[in-house]
Records
---
Amino acid sequence: MSLVVSAGLATACTSETGGAASPAPGTSASTGTSQADPEVPKVTQPPLDAGKYAADTCGLLPQDLLASLKYTDAGEYHPAGNTPLTAAGPSCSWKIKGEGIGLQVILGTGNRDNGVGGLAGTYAAYRQKKLVRFLEPAPAVEGYPAVYAGVQDERSRGTCAMDVGIADDLSFSVQAQGYQGQDDSCAAAAQAAAGVVKTLKGA
């Protein structure tokens, strides 16, 4: 859900792309939810600053990683906005021509700016059963906590969406869709998520 993801708390969600959903702005959740809620995975690694990629979200994934995943065309950047599909934050999507396979990364800066950022926002949306109706812990990504989350669990159908917390109030969502099944889609999502974290560590 990401993001989207990633990846609404009181009323709706801002981003739904296949199985990814992200919390909506204007809700009552606070960035301190991750400390107050023992079920929300804690970010124990140094927080990552993603600000420079808000205007260049496609730059979060290095070209060699994209090529290894068979994405050879340039990504399509979508700036943050006020529509349901853009309010969570800026995003970038890639497609493999003729195969119906796609990858999307959503940087949750919009959610953070509206007080519903980080994995705390994902958990709060799940508890209120808006557009996040499926949530399951995922293996950590380069030491940062992650969850599978979305409108529903579509992993067996080849769509895998995960949110990764990179600060208590900031996460990003990755969704891989159109793959053969859970193993392929989640492997692609995990590789992409690791690529994002490595890029942010080097920023």
---
Amino acid sequence: MSTPETSRFVRLRVDLVLEVDDADAVTKAALRRIGEDEGMPAAERTHAESAVTEDTAEALAYLVDPFDLVSQVPGVDLQQASWSAERIDHDPDAQDWDLDEDDGDDGNDG
């Protein structure tokens, strides 16, 4: 009888809800980061600047980098990442607010 091998790959899902108190500060930070990216082609830079100026959620998506979240974790190498940001209505006291709603695991083994 052989033991099944365990995959070395792990999917880490993180769901954040952020309250933006100063949209201008977020936009300025995103524009600053875009300006510091020397390898970005001019056409892409123009598109990125427009996107972060028009939408604070886009600015946040530009500032939050999954690589930054795991780059200092020993023994791991980021293989693939995707992320997005969107405006939502948020009521932390609502009964239907469930951080685990997308995981599909109801905790039952049967």
---
Amino acid sequence: MPVESTSGRGATRNAVPTRFNLPERLIEGDWLDEVEALDGVTQRRTTVTVERPKSILTRNQSADIGFDRSVNPYRGCEHGCIYCFARPTHAYHDLSPGVDFESRLFVKPDAAKLLHAALSRPGYDCAPIALGTNTDPYQPIEGKWRVTRAILELLNETDHPFTITTKSDRVLRDLDLIAPAAHKGLAAVAMSVTSLDPAISRTLEPRAPAGRKRIEAIRRLNEAGVPTLLAVAPVIPQITDHEMERIVEAGAEAGARAGFYLPIRLPHEVAPLFRAWLDDHYPDRAGKVMATIQSLRGGKDNDPNFFTRMQGQGPWADLLRTRFELAARKAGLGTARLKLRRDLFRPPEGRQMRLL
């Protein structure tokens, strides 16, 4: 049997779950699936399994999150971001939050149909639906499955408000749906930019579009009239924090309406995966990085408490907050949340799209 390589993936480990080189990134990371390594080592292939859930609208009551409902078209994410807080969800499928999370994907092709049923229920109370809160709705497989696009078509039909969080310029492929909704006050996009340095990005988030492409996506969304927020997320001490001011400046110049930042979170299985990644890619500073993260998280790898989990605590948290506020003020980047209209919503009418 040939040895299977994890080259080109974010996680460097694929531990059994215990719970339920380019100078420029000129093309998308999914090109790596076409590469065969030498000496009998084959690249791990991405597989996609159809998932048939009974419902698609997920509710949350988190006190520090600005939405109460979300839709996730995919489970797992091929972008391979080592810091992704959604990795532990793969353990519920008896799969590893490591390499399995980014190579054993699940698609929900009936998502729009299930959402249609949810919006049709008597007494449905309209509020913005968040897309991309767990895994990215514009990861590479969206190009084939187009589940996110089908959802947007339904939301446009019903004039339902929505937000999109992504780190991919693939969102521009649906600009014909997003822009008309935004003109009605029904849509906004948050673009996550972690680093503008290709050398950092190719191991940190190996299959996500380059940071400069995300900045350009902000520009094009803004030109199309789509309110777009810049998310400097996550900020990783001693790895990406030195780029905060540069990212804020670039996002503001591209037309971002507002912005925010989030320090790195390492829940559950993410912490050991991140430690292994540090040991492999940044052995010279691994201990320092983890010590700083723990200082942000009350002496632990992760702080699950509301509010502090989003901003951190202690001197490092204060420093990041001050730096972001100064950078945003200098660049003219706002920090206010965008409000979307709810009064235009009309329940879907049967299986057919409205003709009038």
